[in-house]
Amino acid sequence: MTVRQKLVMLITIAGFVPTFIFSIIIFFEMLEQPFQIIDHNLYDMGVQSLKIILRDKRPNSDINVLFTDNRLWLEVRKNESGKLIFRSKLASLVPLRKHISFIKNIINVRLPKRVADLNQDRNNEVTFYVKNFIFSYNNKDWAIKIAYPMERLQEEIWDIVIGISSGLLLSLIILISVSYFVAGLILKPVIKMDSKIKFITEKNLHKRLDVKFPMDEFDKLSYTLNNLFERLELSFINQKQLLADASHELKTPITMMRFAVEELKNSELCEDDEIYDKNIERLNLLNLRMDQLIKNILDLSALEKGDNIMTKDIDLVEIIVDLIEDYSILGASDNIEIISFLPSKLIYTGDPEKLRRAFSNLLDNALKYNLVNGYIKISGVKTSSMIKISIENSGKGIPGDELEKIFMQFYRVEKSRAKEHGGSGLGLSIVKKIIENHGGRIFLKSELGKVITFIELPVDG
Questions:
Q1: What distances in angstroms separate CA 212 from CA 49, 184, 187, 217, 319, one per listed residue?
Q2: Fewer CB within 10 Å, N- or C-terminus of the chain?
Q3: Number of H helices, E strands in the chain
């Protein structure tokens, strides 16, 4: 079942059920009213008939003169003795005794038309509405039983039933038609979105759905889909950029290795041991660089997929202090001081190996792009919902327009120094993915003479 069909069904049910209930209530109200009128009229006719009978004192008086069509059924008896005082002509022809009534005082009897023509149906059945009551007159109680055929009333009731049923059927048809049209209007934005999304492929992920303000539910959906397309586009761009950058990064060492091999060939002819040793060392360094580059690419690919995140309770202070001891030795050659402003403990649930690598990359980066006689300051604090760690280092700083690009794959602010230190341009990209995979975020601020890296990791409770 399509969404449109479901909407049609729901709108139709929502509209038809109240209409049906209201029609039933109206029908029974309309049905009750004529019975009340008949009941009242029969009472009046019974009383009038009794007064005429007692006034004329003629048991055989023609009481039927009250009705020109001779449709009155009437019996009058003394209440105490049950003695019959008067019986109308129709009452003598049609006995209405010992009939059980389930609806009001309605009794069905068979009466051939040759006996009395009361508009019987094909089965010669006549429906009478009967009223029994006691009336006091002349200091005596009189039992009056009066009935009247209601064939015409039944016909009118059937006309009402047919009319209401026809109205309900017509309203159902109108509801289905209107709901089908309304469902089409409701789903029109979805149909437009569907037609546009069909033509969005990896070649034109820059296309976006129209969003109107203020936004309704469909505009919110379009907005969400646009964000999804934006993330997909960025992912495709990053993948293509990674492939292009990796090819470029690998091309340079491979070319240098080829030149080194050519020199080795020539050095063998001239038996130049110095050139031979020099190129062997160069090949070894290039192999190490390529190995590290490929390892970083594979690690970044695994982090992109969020694979192998093993979590357990760890102390971030312990990890960072161990790294400070290692990098203090490396920074000693440039007289770079590493200062810690960490609390005694920062307990966090995460992957210890990956977080160690993230902080290691940050400290390595802070050393590489530092000044002689510079410093690195590491601070940390834990709140009810967050662990915040900052790493500040002296340096030339980062231009404001490059702060957002610093975490991009293979991006370098100082390309010459990165080559000098053997950087691949993937270190900060790996750090960013590790922090994001832990639900945190990382960002940089740069001022004249210093760079500050901020890390925020969420904690439970």
A1: 80, 19, 16, 11, 50
A2: C
A3: 9, 12
> Per-residue pLDDT for the chain (461 aa), expressed as one digit of tens each?
788 888 888 888 888 888 888 888 888 877 777 778 888 888 888 888 888 888 765 544 444 444 444 677 888 888 888 888 888 888 888 877 654 443 457 777 777 776 777 767 677 777 888 888 899 988 889 998 888 887 777 677 778 888 888 888 998 899 889 888 888 888 888 888 888 887 777 667 777 778 877 877 778 888 888 888 888 877 777 776 666 666 666 666 777 777 766 766 666 545 556 766 776 777 777 677 676 666 766 666 666 665 567 788 999 999 999 999 988 988 888 899 999 999 999 999 998 988 998 999 899 888 988 888 999 999 999 988 899 999 999 988 787 777 777 777 666 655 544 445 555 567 788 888 888 888 899 988 888 788 888 899 998 75
Cβ-based neighbour number of residue 232 at 10 Å: 13
The class of domain 200-307 in CATH terms is: mainly alpha
Q: Give me the amino acid identity at 181.
A: F
Which string of DSSP letters, residue by residue, matches 57-74?
A: T-TT--GGGG-TT---EE
* Rounded alpha-carbon distances, angstroms, from residue 47 to 80, 141, 185, 396: 18, 12, 66, 118
Please name the helix (run of DSSP H) or strand (run of DSSP E) that holds residue 153, with its range, or none. Answer: helix 151-197
Question: What are the residue boundaries of the structural domains of the chain, listed by start?
Answer: 3-169, 200-307, 312-458
Which CATH number describes the domain made up of 312-458? 3.30.565.10
Residue whose tokens read 């964000």: 227
H or E segment at 274?
Answer: helix 273-304
d(CA 77, CA 72): 16
Which is it for strands 106-110 and 125-137: parallel, antiparallel or unpaired? antiparallel
What are the Cα distances from residue 308, in Å, to 316, 412, 415, 439? 19, 28, 32, 15
pTM of the model: 0.47
Beta strands (DSSP E) in 48-124 are 73-78, 84-87, 106-110
**Residue environment code for 189-225, b if the CB has 16+ CB neighbours within 10 A, otherwise e:** beeebeeeeeebeeeebeebbeeeeeeeebbebbeeb
- The residue whose two tokens read 């309203």 is 171
